[in-house]
Amino acid sequence: MISRREFxxxxxxxxxxxxxxxxxxxxxxxxxxAQQEPSxxxxxxxxxxxxxxxxxxxxxxxxAITRSIDNRLRQIERLYQxxxxxxxxxxxxxxxxxxxx
Amino acid sequence: MxxxxxxxLTVAELARLLRQKKTSAxxxxxYFLDRAERLGPRFNAVVTVTRERALSEAAVADREIKAxxxxxxxxxxxxxxxxxxxxxxxxTTWGAEPYRQQKFDSDATVxxxxxxAGAVLVAKLAMVELAxxxxxxxxxxxxxxxxxTPWNPNYWSGGSSSGPGAAVAAGIVPFxxxxxxxxxxxxxxxxxxxxGLRPTYGRVSRHGAMALAWTMDKLGPLxxxxxxxxxxxxxxxxxxxxxxxxxxxxHPLIPSPGGRGGTKWKLGIxxxxxxxxxxxxxxxxxxxxxxxxxxxxxxxxxxxxxxPYGAVAGMIIxxxxxxxxxxxxxxxxxxxxxxxxDRTGGYPALALSAPDYLRALRVRRPMQRALDDFxxxxxxxxxxxxxxVASPIDKPFRDGWPGVTxxxxxxxxxxxxxxxxxxxxxxxxxxxxxxxxxxTARAFDEGKLVSLGQLYQSRTDWHRRQPTLT
Lengths: 101, 470
What we know:
The complex is a heterodimer of chains A (101) and B (470). Chain A contains five helices and no strands. Chain A is an all-alpha fold and 101 residues long. Chain A is flat. The model of chain A is unreliable at 1-32 (pLDDT under 50). Chain B has a domain at 11-236: Alpha-Beta Complex (Amidase signature (AS) enzymes). Chain B has helices spanning 11-19, 25-39, 51-66, 109-116, 162-169, 186-192, 226-236, 279-292, 309-324, 326-331, 354-375, 397-400, 411-417, 446-459, and strands at 46-49, 78-82, 120-125, 175-180, 195-198, 218-223, 265-270, 296-302, 380-384, 421-428, 434-440. In chain B, strand 2 (78-82), helix 4 (109-116) and strand 3 (120-125) form a beta-alpha-beta unit. An eleven-stranded mixed beta sheet of chain B has the order 1-3-2-4-6-5-10-11-9-7-8, sandwiched between helices. The longest helix of chain B is centred in the last third of the chain and has 22 residues, at 354-375. In chain B, helix 7 (226-236) packs antiparallel against helix 14 (446-459). At the A-B interface, helix 1, helix 2, helix 4 and helix 5 of A face helix 9, helix 11 and helix 13 of B.
């Protein structure tokens, strides 16, 4: 049986990058999570997207965007379950520039 | 006298014919240009045939070879590139309607390097629009139509390097350059029955390549054999001042494992790798391991560190992709994309916050260390490249092979941290469709992957099989 954590991660991936999902096992049975109402935060954030481009989306578009945002919010929860310290920097290094004198 | 049949020869074999003066670069270019024009549309594999450029480059190669100036194993060899590499004088469409007329005034670094090695560009090859960055969920996601595998054109060629996979499989080009952010070289390699090599992030310059996710994009070869992929990688790899993420690191050839009294290599098999996947895929995987078992120590049921690979990848691709295409998001040209789901797929990322993106980048660093500590216990990991054969082109991916739910997710985690992988054909499954065997190793261990692929291909002939094209 797929774990709750695995299912949440798969859902999140499905929203973020479906081609990436191709190598992920799919949930074996419909989950209540799959049909659950998007969170209030997801709806609010989707409304923000709609307000940014007020004439661009149909009702179906907004529904799809809301569900995708909802899945992303669950994905974000996983990021904060990994312990980091203040000293753990992003994996890029900014380098200062000095042009020719 | 029958016309020459170059279509399914390897780079090494074509180079031998050139060196022996049994053919010319111009004859090869003409031969593959004709195939690109004739067969490209059948598989939706070709965007632009670069005839004028190819014949010009071939003429130069012929003059040089005649004068005894031998540039190396790719001199006079035709090739194609995924249409996300900038190419002077020809459109570079990124597979997307909004960029159909786009032109650049210089070549991508990879094309420059192949040109310097004497290779001959014959075609720009089809791809999933924007390399899949807007979230496509079915094969018809390019203005060139759904990519079709030459083994059965009712089925997908894989993506997003759909054209490179199909073109190599159909003998349209001897090798091609594709790109992978998360699965886009290995998947078409498996679905088209060819060999694909995803290099370590930074091994190959991305300068002149369309960006999907700057910190995850990799360019690499698809070809007829592991040896060919190793040859091409040797030409395109290396530091490029125009790409600060590129690295200067040797790409040594590694002797085969266990040969001449040498020690066996340790091959890890991730837990669940062949569980609950298509039976033919599982059987081919086990048969492939059997072929190699005298030279390898096989360790079953190894487990990758339990880390949020998917969450990190989703955040990085979502945020970097939305930024890379912010012009399309802003002016609404996403609506011109082919796949309906791509027309809205970029907008949800606008709701991501900068701290959340940075959190993903911070988590990725300990993730890299943990995965490297894990990978260093083995010379390579092995999994079936995909848990099914190719999906039907007329169904959403999720409905393609219902009920197949298993397998081990290796493509995702290894792409997040940027380590290399190779897929070699290892048999056929339902509908006469090919299956793939993947090896993955530590960063910059492409030499080991090529060596493993060569060993397998020295004992099997799956990479020599040809689709029926009549």
